[in-house]
Structures are given as structure tokens and as C-alpha cells.
């Protein structure tokens, strides 16, 4: 793998505005009844007037050891040369094994195509044009950083090397490529 695309979500900078969700819907023609990405807002925590919230990004974790790919009987779920977990709609037989195997519960059936769908970092649109994913480009607080972690000079590599971060459910061995900078006011949840 020449590139290793990763995404960092800074829980301290996120304000839960859902601009990422709206941009994703627009860029990827996501129907209203489903979502590729959302920010779940938890809280409030603390005592008035010192209240705070926790903002949790929910999207495909782009696992290096992806369970969804392992269970796909036709190769419709696959990992691209750049490490992005993708779906070939033409090969999908609708068995839903990939949906069941995802430990993050982020795959869904697109009601229009009737094929499993999920975040793919906008690989066929924005990445193909040399741009960042839609969610990253619209974030008003710059809570999202995206790039090639194999490039030691990249912004994403510098963030990972200098800020405390974590990944969800690492105990499952999926090796997710979505990292989080934990909220200073909240604890780290696995």
C-alpha cells in the first residue's frame, strides 16, 4: 500500500453542527432515510452553568483488517490499493454478510440502489480530483484532518505524532484508520 489514508476527528474542536453529514449527503447522493456519517451528540455533562457535550463521529472506520471484506463471498467488498474499503455494486448479490459483520454498525442498505453502502472518503469523486473528502472540506472548526499517514510530512501524520489519540474497538483487531483526539472534558470510550 503506497498510501495509507486516515482521518482524525478532534472531539475538542467538533461542535456537532452536522455540516459534515450535509456535505456527505450532497457529494454522494445519500438518500434522506440513511447516512454515511453523522456526529452523535452526548450529554449534557456537568453541572449548570458548566455543562459540556461529547461529539462522537459515526462512520466507516476504514479497517485495515476489515471484517466486512473477509465475509463477502463475491469480492464486492474489497480493499483498494490505497487501503480504502470499498464496494463494487456490480458484484454484490445482496447477502448482507458485510452489514452483519461490521462491528461498528455503519454499513446500511441504500434504499435506491439496494446495495450496502458506507463512507469511502469520497474516493471516486473528491479524492479522484485530488481534493479532501467533503466532510473535511466543510468543517467550520477544522475538527477533521485527512491525509496519507505514510507521508511523514503530511498534516495528518503530524497530528497523529503530536496529539494523544485513540481508535474505537481496537481490541477486535480491525485496525481502524479513523482516529480520535479525546475530549479533554470526557473520558476515552472504547
TrEMBL record:
Pfam families listed in its UniProt record: Fer4_11 (PF13247)
Keyword Iron-sulfur among record annotations: yes
InterPro entries per UniProt: 4Fe4S_Fe-S-bd, 4Fe4S_Fe_S_CS, ET_IronSulfur_Cluster-Binding
Metal-binding listed as a keyword: yes
Keyword terms: 4Fe-4S, Iron, Iron-sulfur, Metal-binding
Domain of life: Bacteria
All residue ranges annotated as the 4Fe-4S ferredoxin-type domain in the record: 5-34, 51-82, 83-112
Residues spanning the signal sequence: none
The protein, known as: 4Fe-4S dicluster domain-containing protein
Lineage of the organism: Bacteria, Pseudomonadati, Pseudomonadota, Gammaproteobacteria, Alteromonadales
Amino acid at each position: 500500500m503506497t498510501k495509507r489514508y486516515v482521518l482524525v476527528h478532534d472531539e475538542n474542536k467538533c461542535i456537532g453542527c452536522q455540516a459534515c453529514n450535509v456535505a456527505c449527503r450532497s457529494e454522494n447522493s445519500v438518500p434522506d432515510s440513511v447516512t454515511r456519517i453523522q456526529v452523535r451528540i452526548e450529554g449534557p455533562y456537568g453541572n449548570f452553568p458548566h455543562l459540556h457535550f461529547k461529539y462522537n463521529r459515526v462512520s466507516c472506520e476504514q479497517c485495515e483488517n476489515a471484517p466486512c471484506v473477509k465475509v463477502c463471498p463475491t469480492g464486492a467488498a474489497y480493499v483498494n490499493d490505497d487501503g480504502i474499503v470499498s464496494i463494487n455494486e456490480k458484484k454484490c448479490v445482496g447477502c448482507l454478510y458485510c452489514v452483519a459483520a461490521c462491528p461498528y454498525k455503519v454499513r446500511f442498505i441504500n434504499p435506491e440502489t439496494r446495495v450496502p453502502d458506507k463512507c469511502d472518503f469520497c474516493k471516486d469523486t473528491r479524492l479522484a480530483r485530488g481534493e479532501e473528502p467533503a466532510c473535511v472540506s466543510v468543517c467550520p472548526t477544522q475538527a477533521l484532518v485527512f491525509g496519507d499517514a505514510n507521508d511523514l510530512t503530511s498534516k495528518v501524520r503530524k497530528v497523529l505524532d503530536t496529539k494523544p489519540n485513540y481508535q474505537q474497538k481496537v481490541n477486535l483487531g480491525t485496525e481502524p484508520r479513523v482516529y480520535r483526539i479525546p475530549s479533554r472534558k470526557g473520558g476515552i470510550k472504547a
